[in-house]
Specification:
It is built from 13 helices and 20 strands. With 432 residues, the chain is an alpha/beta fold. The structure holds flavin mononucleotide and iron/sulfur cluster (2 copies).
């Protein structure tokens, strides 16, 4: 761990599902963790742990070329990242030897081994002792790979079937003493079905999300989706900043689920800043994993992740990550429990406004026609909120290019809290 966090009198060390780590930042199972060379450089940079790139039975998987594509923003910033890569393409023995060597050289770091073998007990029984012999701290079950492996009855083909999740988890708990983290696929209707199955099977924790089924773009000259392999393409797995909202919701869904209560959660999906990480922790995660941000910006981002998180914790008076874990869960509820009497309306700070008119167009064309466009004597325009019409939808604030120019101001209505179940406008109120 870097010196600054110690000076700040915050302890970022965690124990997650019985696995100790000097900080909560782990690299997710992917190319950054596929060999000793990468993992040792990651540890030297300050990562608290890694989940080694998924191992499988020999012969090793064979990959295609090319493998990645991206969903770009207007300034070529990568909003989302897509891959059609399989699990490790190196021999099992090579990986196991390197895992063993790395663990010996870095005993204080968390080293978890990701696994994916055929969905038969014999395959799991055979590989688990070999992984345990490396000295690794735990295993993560890759039940989520959305491409290539499901066609062979593995990855998401297992993760989309709660009975199989429970079965595979139980085999791992039966044939290994290592903590078992079950990595979940987001390509499922109700993520709670998967976490409940993992818990029933005896899982020590769940991690999520793996990648989301995706096609990022199409080459319209060649009429081939990307990434292009010869003259064809296939769907891949989506990750990076764009999937963070999906992942955050799924983490919260599990954290709120009474049937998954007590199951530690490792948050994954679009984490690229300490704020992202803190948000996952607030919604129930006890550790986080990062892949795309490290692939795009390198291992050194962990310095900023640790430093930013530690400074924020000091500013809020948190000493340990466990003090933050789940803090926002109780404030996350079903729609029907929200306060129907709460009212907020938009306010424009005229000093900051550059009169671009974006808020006006958005509200006029698609919301509640609650912004007036007024002509000033000097020929300029002035935009003003029509407070009586504003429903407080946030659209103008979201479209405004000047941060802080439009604020949403809670109103004192004088009315008490009233949920939809209590609301006289609810035709099913009696039933509720
Ligand atoms: C190129 C690439 C390869 C990946 N390979 C694996 C893998 O072998 N096993 C696995 O469990 N997840 C794999 N993943 C998924 C990541 O571990 C992670 O769950 C996902 O990328 C979401 O995190 P992120 O948004 O930080 O990238 C891979 C992701 C990428 C981009
Ligand atoms: S909050 Fe919504 S309704 Fe109110 S002014 Fe803005 S866009 Fe219009
Ligand atoms: S979008 Fe923002 S800056 Fe532009 S007119 Fe509206 S308040 Fe002013």
């Amino acid at each position: 761990m870097k010196a600054p966090t110690r000076q700040l009198d915050v302890d970022l060390a965690i124990e997650f599902a019985g696995i100790r780590s000097p900080n909560p930042f782990w690299l997710a199972s992917a190319p950054p963790t596929d060999k000793a060379y990468n993992v040792e450089r990651a540890f030297a940079a300050g990562w608290g742990g890694v989940v080694w790139k998924t191992l499988g039975e020999d012969p090793p998987a064979v990959n295609v070329s090319s493998r990645y594509s991206a969903h770009f923003g207007h300034n070529r910033d990568v909003l989302g990242f897509n891959n059609i890569e399989l699990i490790t393409d190196r021999p099992l023995e090579t990986n196991l030897r390197e895992i063993s060597e790395v663990k010996q050289r870095w005993p204080d770091r968390a080293l978890i081994v990701s696994l994916m073998v055929p969905c038969v007990e014999e395959s799991w029984r055979a590989i688990l002792p070999r992984v345990e012999a490396t000295g690794a701290d735990g295993i993560e079950l890759n039940l989520g790979c959305p491409h290539g492996m499901p066609e062979r009855g593995m990855g998401a083909a297992v993760g989309q079937n709660p009975d199989l999740i429970e079965q595979v988890t139980r085999w791992c708990k039966t044939h290994s003493r290592l903590p078992v983290i079950v990595k979940l696929t987001p390509n499922i209707t109700d993520i709670r079905a998967a976490s409940r199955a993992a818990k029933l099977g005896g899982a020590d924790a769940v991690s999520l999300i793996n990648t989301v089924n995706s096609i990022t773009s199409v080459d319209l000259d060649r009429m081939i989706a990307r990434p292009i392999v010869g003259h064809q393409s296939t769907h891949g797995g989506y990750c990076g900043a764009a999937v963070k909202p999906i992942a955050l919701n799924m983490v919260a869904e599990i954290a709120r689920d009474p049937q998954s209560a007590g199951l530690p959660i490792c948050g994954i999906g679009g984490i690229s800043s300490w704020q992202d990480a803190a948000e996952f922790v607030a919604l129930g995660a006890g550790a986080v994993q990062v892949c795309t941000a490290a692939m795009l910006h390198g291992f050194r981002i962990v310095e900023e992740l640790q430093d930013g998180l530690a400074r924020w914790m000091v500013s809020k008076g948190y000493r340990r990550l466990a003090d933050v874990t789940g803090r926002a869960v109780d404030n996350t509820t079903d729609w029907k429990h929200l306060d129907m009497n709460f009212q907020t309306i938009a306010h424009i700070d005229q000093q900051q406004c550059i009169q671009c008119g974006r808020c006006y167009i958005a509200c006029e064309d698609t919301s509640h026609q609650s912004i007036a466009k007024l002509a000033e004597e000097d020929g300029t325009r002035r935009y003003e909120i029509i407070e009586a019409a504003c429903v407080g939808c946030n659209l103008c604030q979201i479209t405004c290019p000047v941060e802080g120019c439009i604020s949403m101001v809670p109103q004192s209505t004088g009315k008490p809290f009233m949920s939809w179940d209590e609301d006289p406008r609810n035709p099913f109120r009696e039933l509720a």
